[in-house]
Write a structure and sequence with these properties.
Length: 1521
Amino acid sequence: MSYRKGLKVWVEEKGEGWVEAEVVEAKERAVVVFSSQRKKITVSPEKLLPRDTDEDLGGGHVDDMTKLTYLNEPGVLYNLKKRYALNEIYTYTGSILIAVNPFTRLPHLYNEYMMEQYKGIRLGELSPHVFAVADASYSRAMVNDSRSQSILVSGESGAGKTETTKLIMQYLTFVGGRAALDDRTVEQQVLESNPLLEAFGNAKTVRNDNSSRFGKFVEIQFDSSGRISGAAIRTYLLERSRVVQITDPERNFHCFYQLCASGKDAELYKLGHISSFHYLNQSNTHDLEGTNNEDEYWKTKRAMDIVGISREDQDAIFRTLAAILHLGNIEFVPGKDADSSKIKDSTSNFHLQTAAKLFMCDSDLLVSTLCSRSIHTREGIIVKALDCAAAAANRDALAKTVYARLFDWLVENINKSIGQDVDSKLQIGVLDIYGFESFKNNSFEQFCINFANEKLQQHFNEHVFKMEQEEYKSEEINWSYIEFIDNQDVLDLIEKKPIGIIALLDEACMFPKSTHETFATKMFRNFSSHLRLERTKFSETDFTISHYAGKVTYQTDSFLEKNRDYIVAEHCNLLSSSRCPFVSGLFTSLPEESIRSSYKFSSVASRFKLQLQALMETLNSTEPHYVRCVKPNSANRPQLFENQSVLHQLRCGGVLEAVRISLAGYPTRRTYAEFVDRFAVLVPELMIGSYDEKMMTKGILEKMKLENFQLGKTKVFLRAGQIAILDMRRAEILDNAARHIQGRFRTFITRKEFVKTREASISIQAYCRGCLARKMFANRRETAAAVIVQKYVRRWLLRRAHLQACLAALLIQSYIRGFIARRYFSVIREHKAATVIQSTWRRRKFVILFQNYRQATVAIQCSWRQKLARKELRKLKMAANEAGALREAKNKLEKKMDDLALRLTLERRLRASSEESKSVEILKRDKIIESLSAECAAAKSAAQNEHAKKLLLQKQLDDSLREITMLQSKKIMSAEAAEENSNLKNLVESLSTKNSILENELIVTRKSSDDTMEKLKEVEGKCNHLQQNLDKLQEKLTNLENENHVLRQKAFNMPTMNNLSVAPKTLSEKFSASIGLPNSEPKHIYESPTPTKYLASLPQTLSTSRRSRLPVERHEQNHEILLRCIKENLGYKDGKPVAACIIYKCLLHWRAFESERTAIFDHVIEAINDVLKGNEADGRLPYWLSNTSALLCLLQRNLRSNGLFTTPSRRSGGALGKIAQTLRSPSKFIGRSDTLPHVDARYPAILFKQQLTACVEKIFGQLRDNLKKEISPLLNVCIQAPKSTRGQSGKASKSSGVGAHPASNSNWDNIVNFLDLLMDTLRENYVPSFFIRKLITQLFSFINIQLFNSLLLRRECCTFSNGEYVKAGLSLLEKWITDVTDEFAGTSWHELNYIRQAVGFLVIHQKRKKTLEEIKQDLCPSLSVRQIYRICSMYWDDKYGTQGISTEVVAAMREMVNKDTQNLVSNSFLLDDDLSIPFSTEDLSMAIPSIDYADVDLPESLQHYTSVQFLLRQQDPQPAQ
């Protein structure tokens, strides 16, 4: 590739990896570039990579690496860096997700609303997110392919693998959630096991304080319906050698340090300081910054409790850990015999005895196990002694074996706690495994880890290549000749038999005399010509392998020791004989063939190879998804991006390998619209009159003489380097055009300057001639003027002398006249002031006199009226006592008294028990109130005393002031007496001193008074609060008394001769139902409870006799007419719902509202609920909203309370009190005079009105929710402009030969049509405008929320052209709102504030000139800084190519967002939907117009019923009196 001057490139730099540069000079074999670090560098062309010249136009970053113009290392690196600076931590590379650890909390990305947004969304449709990958795996497993899936999470220590795994499991539980046993989900149980696994499997390394030293594969199992049915955890390659050997500054496993810091538990196991144990003191790092070992110990114990490990097993686990530590402190010295050993000293013997005690085994057997081994032969058992080194190795082998078995036991128990589904056929596995490792010193663990990563990389390469093939197939292009990049040769080098590195290592381990030198020699001899294996220069045993991520040098010093995993028979026999069931359970008895040999060799590498093989088989049977976690810096700080470290991780994570696979095929893919929009300037003649983008693309490529490109169905595929050729040609054309424009512009500027200079010279000449002429004329005019001036000066001097004389005379006269006038005016003013004072004083006297007379008159009138009222009250009482009705009732009650004795006795008992409990409560309240009242009285008395003192001091101060005034006046009057004057001065000084003392006392008194008043206010507040509680109790008590009064009336009016046996039970049920005892079941929110749920029904025998006397019960058999009215659509007459009017007329005629007990209201409510539950309920919702609201309006206006439910308190208690209060004053809501009769409402009627109100709210809520469901698909389409619209707008903006086409608003027209249809439906059903206004307002609020949230979640929507498209759609909604008027639309336009301001921000020009204050206050006042920051980070100008908000504003917003993130618990930038009911009962009463039901006739379909013939005989039925 040739480079020209001015071309933007990437140049490699040691510290930064890659830096931006610009070509300054291009030579034959070298290129001189000027880097962003202001350095001139001369490099060869092969070391340069092209950079996109338009990288800043799209916001400087893309959310998918495949969208990069140049897919190369620096492009990937800097794209991640720019997105990380904007807190965009997720980025796609095809189907691979790259997650950069933010090292800060971002809760808005992981709340439940965000999970709901990504549910069921195709991968890549929304912004990159780990939830998108999890949803893709779930959708393919459960919906599309019915095939198990796997998610591979990899990265180095501290990159966020574990947190990402938690988020994946959290999302999978959300979409396939199952409530597991003990009220814990599977995800919770797996996460609760994390602290336990971290304690026993994590340790501090050089790079990470909490590094996982094992691999983990979590398999979540699903049933056929997609619900989670179980889970399992598998672990790989625990770093056992860390138990016995660590290096500084690393640590051993966390559990050892936690146990040593456990306090009493540590003393119980005879543990001391960490530094006293050999397995822990090999490193000087004992504590972790920000971590308390003791606290972590108790967290681990709590995790064991959660997982289900018993207390006995917990004690055994920690005893085993303590025994391992004591085991490490056992030291050996040479014994008496050759090659033998024994315990060194008493300290070692103490640790030996302690370890044996903790293992619960024989100490002598432990000594013999450590210092010797037995060999079984035909002749017998031969015991061979071990030397010191062998005994220490035997000790370490025992410690590693015990710890490994303990770890496996923990994993097994965790799996048992979670629960596995063996019948599950669909699984989603989440692999959290260590990433590629390359340190200064790399040992056997790094070799195994990198071997596993090579295996996974091969699987990854195959998957990426497969994805490439699938895209090529979908685009129908030829791809058969593309080569596949494979790393099979590295895998053969490591694992191939019989001469692979692992095979050679196992062979060396089987020979006791083999060393790492013999192993290295044999390896170099077998692989001397292998391209991937190298021998290091300065070591005979170290070797280097060229992995996919780079070269790694391994030190073989400890390869053999770490690979040997002997199963020592003595170890198994020792611990299987332990008296502790837990320890003996870890070591089962060995088979016969194992007993014959003391050492049974087992290769760690071979076993890991088999585990890895099983894992790869599992992964191959699933469809993989990849998440690559990246650690941006080694300091674990937010907003710090280290290029070199990230680049190394990208290479190790296989991301750049995926880039290389893409480069092997067609790395550059562009849609035809994007390609034509970018490169149409190369062949402008093709743009004239042509709209076939594919043909234009082909013409451009053929014109540029490019080969090996492919034209797919929707995209053009270019080989590596071809896009650079096109960009160079495009840059040349644009440069030529720029030079041409500059030349024309310079010509224009030069001519303009020439014309301006010529006009200036002409102006200067004219000005000079004018100056000369004006100078000559001025001389002549001055000569003539001198004569005239002299004449006028002489005249002026004479005139001035005359005027001075006249002015002097006038001044003397005016002074004299003024003096006379002022003296006269002073006399008049004094006289007038005296008159005003006299008149004011007389008026004041008469006003005071009048007020006294008026108060006396009012008092007399009040007394007289009170006297008259008392007389009238006595008359009324006497008349009431003499009423015959009372005497008749008294006679009837006396006759029935004997029959009701038993029932009343029971009622008294129930009543007495309830009153007793209430009286006790009231007495308690009264005592509290009395005590507080006493305190209040004491405080008031104290305040009064202070106030009296204050008045006394004030009076003394006034007296002192009067004395001072008098003394001062005497001083003035007796100025001649000097001695008296001095005495008065002394007296004044003493009085002033006394005055100051009194003022100080007054200030102190005021302060104490203020304190007392504050305390008094606090006491009064408490007293008021208690008084309110007492009022509430009194209200409840009064309501219960009223209800009891109703029940008592019923009891008095019922014959009981034949029902005494069942009366006690019935009354108890009725009483419990009336006062709301716990027996009654709570109702759901949207159910409409019937009145009989509150009034318990009486026995059939009682109700039969009662029915014969109440009018409503005589008509109860005719409730079918009401059911017919409800089930049929009776339509409307003159805008009035016929069904509601007919139902109200029937209930009014049958006196249902005056009945104390009836079931007819139950039938009405239940019938309405049944209609709303039917199959056609959605279509009838507007009809029933109109009918129920009309019926509720009639009840509200025509029912009144009979005074039964009035309470003595000012405030009504509960819902019943509110209804009673409403019914007591129905005229409050009526704007006209009461022409309709008011009916006295009883308790069932009041409850019926309450249930009808709930029914109206239910219908409104169902209708609103249905509308939201219907409009949601339309909104999902409207948020983004159609592809054809975007392509045409782009071509119109950059191609001169093509005119712009108007944007298609068909999707928005669908929304307008939907709203028109909704308005027509609501108007056809005569729904009140109040409901229409509330419904439309909430619907537009939902539109605002959906459009705004979609805008923030989809980057392709945050463009200039898309903003214009959405703005045009919003203008259609504005026109619709204007057309329907405010009566129906209300504040709907205001509800669209968020989306209007966001779209307005997208389409403004010159965004870089806007400050943060202008954006917050002028452009987006309703939006939060987090929302504005989200829009700015996603915005890009796809139409004009302009830049977005300035970097200073973005940095300021990022700082504010980070600061808010630390303070807020939930700081999502998305909006929440409003599901509340936006009106109350009072709103309905005031908003719904009154209805005259008199002129509504009975429909013909109902006229044959006999029970409604009265509706045909009378037009306006009146209730019978």
